Amino acid sequence: MIPHIRKQPLPTGITFIVVLVATLHHSMTQEVAATTAVPQTSAAPATPASPGNPERGHYNVTNGNGTVCLMARMGLQLNVTFINTENKTVQELVNLHPNQTKPTGSCDKDTAILTLTEDKTNLIFSFSLNVTSKKYHLSSLALSAAWPDMAAPLNASGSGLDYLRGTLGRSYMCREEQNLMVDANFSLNTYQLQVQPFGLNSDQFGEAEECELDEDDMLIPIIVGAALSGLVLIVLMAYLIGRKRSHAGYQTI
Ligand SMILES: *[C@@H]1O[C@H](CO)[C@@H](O)[C@H](O)[C@H]1NC(C)=O
Ligand SMILES: *[C@@H]1O[C@H](CO)[C@@H](O)[C@H](O)[C@H]1NC(C)=O
Ligand SMILES: *[C@@H]1O[C@H](CO)[C@@H](O)[C@H](O)[C@H]1NC(C)=O
Ligand SMILES: *[C@@H]1O[C@H](CO)[C@@H](O)[C@H](O)[C@H]1NC(C)=O
Ligand SMILES: *[C@@H]1O[C@H](CO)[C@@H](O)[C@H](O)[C@H]1NC(C)=O
Ligand SMILES: *[C@@H]1O[C@H](CO)[C@@H](O)[C@H](O)[C@H]1NC(C)=O
Ligand SMILES: *[C@@H]1O[C@H](CO)[C@@H](O)[C@H](O)[C@H]1NC(C)=O
Ligand SMILES: *[C@@H]1O[C@H](CO)[C@@H](O)[C@H](O)[C@H]1NC(C)=O
């Protein structure tokens, strides 16, 4: 009878921990899912019909001698405001389709150009390298578009930009959606981006430098993990203290 009673606290305690941890884990993972889903749901109700996330393209620029000197992988969405054929100002989101987009460009010592052409759309990226500091960035973006619903062809460009900052020989990476403002009528949304405009010396991207958006994203699981292990520790200690007390209780009987 007594050994039976003595054994009882152990399975009850373990069950308690398992149930508590499972519950906490469940509620916390749900919280993580909810917070990561927020940017997508908040972006959806914006003005016109969203075309959905763009497909990710793989674009290369080759040197005169045939070696790849710029590599980019990204999904691209244009956010353009223009006057349409009905003389109305409209804002449209247009995805680039990788299988219909042709990359061209050039690579110099301190400037690299990537031009993407899809039908009546032309998008030019200019990257600049500071040879002294060995840092590069996207310094200008230019769009020209002659879509059927436009009253007149559109040219939009921005120079002196400071986006996609990386280090020579490394790639810049941003998995999260980024909104690059270019001018009042044009911004570029990038998805799942990895680019290296300088210092490619093999077929592979150099070590990736991640954007802050991605780092913030990784911080959440780390915090949850730390909180969870802290809670497990507290529960274990509480259990051990409880067992010690009940053990002392048996001895007095
Ligand atoms: C190709 O040309 C670049 C300079 O334009 C040079 O750095 C590179 O070594 C050349 N590669 C080959 C395989 O010749
Ligand atoms: C498109 O641009 C407009 C004006 O710049 C902005 O208000 C809107 O949030 C942008 N939408 C997306 C999905 O980027
Ligand atoms: C377009 O609208 C503006 C004012 O909203 C008007 O002044 C202009 O004449 C219109 N143009 C055409 C071609 O209808
Ligand atoms: C491009 O890809 C889309 C979907 O991925 C497909 O529907 C379309 O037929 C493709 N177009 C061409 C020209 O390959
Ligand atoms: C390049 O970087 C160096 C060191 O950070 C800086 O002093 C210089 O002004 C930069 N040059 C350009 C053209 O931005
Ligand atoms: C728009 O850009 C195209 C090509 O870049 C150029 O030929 C055209 O002259 C430009 N139009 C205007 C109005 O600037
Ligand atoms: C934006 O578009 C409007 C109407 O087409 C035009 O009047 C304005 O100059 C454009 N703004 C810029 C910065 O290009
Ligand atoms: C781009 O270049 C890389 C490295 O040479 C190669 O693996 C990849 O297939 C190329 N992609 C395209 C779309 O040409």
From TrEMBL:
Ranges that cross the membrane: 218-241
Lysosome-associated membrane glycoprotein 2-like luminal domain span: 54-200
A Pfam family assignment: Lamp2_2nd
InterPro entries named among the record's database cross-references: Lamp2-like_luminal (IPR048528), Lamp2-like_TM (IPR048524), LAMP_CS (IPR018134), Lysosome-assoc_membr_glycop (IPR002000)
Record field: compositional bias (Low complexity): 39-50
Disulfide linkage: C69-C107, C174-C211
A cellular-component GO term for this protein: lysosomal membrane
Signal peptide interval: 1-29
Record key words, sorted: Cell membrane, Disulfide bond, Endosome, Glycoprotein, Lysosome, Membrane, Signal, Transmembrane, Transmembrane helix
Keyword Ribosomal protein applies: no
Bilayer topology annotation: Single-pass type I membrane protein
Keyword set includes Membrane: yes
Main location: membrane
Subcellular location per the Swiss-Prot or TrEMBL entry: Cell membrane; Cytolytic granule membrane; Late endosome membrane; Lysosome membrane
Origin superkingdom: Eukaryota
Matching PROSITE patterns: LAMP_2 (PS00311), LAMP_3 (PS51407)
Lysosome-associated membrane glycoprotein 2-like transmembrane domain mapped to chain residues: 220-251
Region described as Disordered: 39-60
Family of this protein: Belongs to the LAMP family.
Protein name listed in UniProt: Lysosome-associated membrane glycoprotein 1
Organism of origin: Coilia grayii
